[in-house]
Amino acid sequence: MKMSNMHSEQLCVNMGPQHPSTHGVLYLDLRLDGEEVVDCITHIGYLHRSMEKIAENRTYTQFIPFTDRLDYVASMNNNLAYVLAVEKLLNLDVPERAKYIRVIVAELNRIASHLLAIGTFAQDLGAFATPLFYCFREREKVIEIFDEVCGNRLTYNYMRIGGVQFDLPEGIDRRIKDFIKYMRPKINDYEGLLTNNPIFLERTKNIGILSKETAINYSITGPNLRASGVQWDLRKDEPYLVYDKFEFAIPTGKNGDMWDRYRVRMDELSQSLKIIEQAIAGIPEAQATVKAGRMIKPAAGEVYFRAESPRGELGFYIVSDGSVNPYRLKIRAPSFSNLAVLRELVKGVKVADVVGILGSLDILMGEIDR
Amino acid sequence: MVTLSSLIVMVLVVSAVLGFISASAMFLIWWERKVSAHIQTRFGPMRVGWHGVLQPIADAIKLLCKEDIVPVGVDKWVWWLAPFFVTVPAVMAFVAIPFGKNLIVQDLNLGILYIIAITSTGIFGIFMAGWGSNNKYSLLGGMRSAAQIISYEIPLLISIITVLLFSGSLSMQKIVTAQAKYWFILNPSLFVAFFVYIISATAEVNRAPFDLPEAESELVAGFHTEYSGMKFAMFFIAEYTNMFTISAIAATLFLGGWRGPLLPGPVWFLIKTYTIIFVLMWVRWTFPRVRVDQLMGFAWKVLTPISLVNLIIAGWFILK
Amino acid sequence: MAITEQIPGAEFIHKLPGGPVVLASTEKIFKWAKSSSLWPLTFGLACCAIEMIAAGASRFDIDRFGAGVFRASPRQCDVMIVAGTISVKMGECVKLLYEQMPEPKYVMALGNCAISGGIFYYDTYSVVKGTESLGIPVDVYIPGCPPRPENLFFGLMKLQEIVRKERHAAK
Amino acid sequence: MRQSKVFELIKLKFPQVSEEDLTKAVIVPQELLPAVANYLKGQDLSFDNLHCITAVDRLERIELVYIFYSFKNRQQAIVKVYLPIDAAEVESLTKFYRSADWFEREVYDLFGVKFLNHPNLARILNPQDWKGYPLRKNYTNPNLIRKP
Fold it and tell me: How high is the ipTM of this complex?
């Protein structure tokens, strides 16, 4: 008798909302046949904070701190996408120096975010705490820089409409350069710890395969899309700020399995370091901010702007009616679409792979539930 | 006929063994926390006693005075008995472990068989915990552990049989005596057996990378998800005691037991045992976990054939 | 009820000469043990959870205080760190988790959202205005948005102080 | 290819569509939406990605905003559908784009737009027994305290 003909009674396991590896408050309704997943229904909304309703009652500047709390691992990138959207609405051009500063902090935050993604992914595969804590050790270095730049560890609230809150402090370029020098060999450490580990390879290769067509059809973005073999990065394809001045590659995967998604993130770490290096070298001495005023009144109109956040394309759709508050603000969060594909990916895999695939998608509940 | 004096001796020996077990388990818990912390570039417990040495004692006292929750819907008897079924075999195995030349509770002439037989019954407790908790995570953990332990028992036993071919006896003390000339691990065929034994024994005691029954990132806490307070502590102590037992067996069977120059026997025995435990900890805090089908595949497709071939080669050597 | 009263024969020990001293010191040991081994629940709600992990990670290392054993099962932990915004949908689950924890149990509200709703107090329809409004008693409030790991340690030390100063070892 | 070019192409095929003055978005009558989506996804325009669906409550009507993207042509298209507020119903796009599933559920949850023939039109962010549609301008809830 073939194994595939054997079925047992379906077991319904509720994973979450409190579960060590659901990355926050996600609730998966798993239907199991033995250890095999038959179906997985995803329930979200356990962190729904009604950001979009808040936005309608705040001025444009007042909403910046709320964007910090969307994707709280990459606050700078959220700030950035939001202020760029508002600037596009206002047709405001920011000084060159501000653009460079924005690129530097956004890329630093991308490194911090990818480190967390790699660490939690390894944790989900059962490498208990060690890779995660190694990643946190390096992440602390980035946070230290941010702490000096804007005085906070997690929610930076650093970008302003028309520039940045403060200019970079004295001597920060030295520290950033030190960090780059420190970080490069550490990437090799991770390669040694995870990449060539036979158990890790066995667990990640050819599992959770996301094909190119499915990825596009599900509107997957970011590293997950690139891992499926689509060479697409907004920083390169629709360059904003000064990304077109820098040289960097877009790492892509082949199969779109867990290992490719991990690989793409690992490669992006070094690419981000490369961008920061070039930005530090080319930063012009100038004013960092233009005065946009505290009460911003854009003309009536609509704008959709998206930027490449570490998890994918973060878009802001802002409708203005000419008053100080946005009439409607829609946040198009990358994790939202990235999570939607989970049900497709986990059919037929083992329970252990569900958490692995979830970890490899690198979702964050803050921006899914908003 | 039990006389009073033999009864007193018995009580003394039993309390000595129990005392050693709890002390050793607590030491191991502290040590594991320190080892893991230093692997992760942390310090681990520091505030409770010197470098946190009193930490496991504090933990134990705290667990002792925690509320003992009996969830609604548990299979009462099974649920109650499970921690005892896990702990008692772990303790009973100590009867036949030789700590020194004369330091053994009872040198059974079927010593190793007894230990293997006793430790395998620990699975009943785990499965009872999984079944009795009436929790799906526990059930999955219990089922995984049953499948895992049955599969790994085979390569484990075959690797031990390889040793027995060379020692010619099942008695633990005689196995140690047989290593008077050289440690068994230096024999090429037993070298292979040693690794088969260590891998299957790691799986047997549910340590990472084979810690599927209590896989935290998948099954919350596995078979002991619903246990609180002292019952949870019993699972914890049993886990560390089992770890000590398998390492002690490895030290006895392959590393010459309590034999060693200069230092007294028990010291050598403990050094060897704790070295193996340290390696197990090192592995635990470095490797990711394997998946359940890979785990079974590894046991049946890799370890069992290797150990069988190894046994045949060893037998051929001896007959030659 | 004091924990020592649960010990079999406590009344008899109390009557013996020196008995109360023994009981009192036992009580002290229990309190010491409880305060030095506060195991938190692995339970991150939102932003503050990242700082909670950071507090457990290499730089800060909450394990130094004996509180580094993050247990995923509520049955095995002593302190619930409510780290983040509680939404209306999540409220019931938080309450359930609190009820599943065995006594003696403590709650730390980490961050403004867990204290009062924080910046999500106004204009939202889906945020619970703090942990206490769910009916969960909070022992330590740690303000900040998010609080730094140092603040979490300060809160933890305050909680240890509370535990040591409790009238009875069993709550 | 610009948004206006996309509009012209759609206009050729579907004469009923019009262009919004301010935003240059393509306004599609609600009964034509599936046909337009099918055309957008087809060979001529190959908009293979439905990037986002959202809605705006304009008090008298609800505007549905569809953002399409074509990876082949590197081209974005914004399509709008005006719906009357008291009978907000439109055909679901799930049979063309899988990403529409969750986006439509979100719009249903927050604006109360009914998507016909959706495989599982249930609330996604709010609890299933939630009353009202929170992002409509006239939404009230005792929990909702206005900032003074």
Answer: 0.84
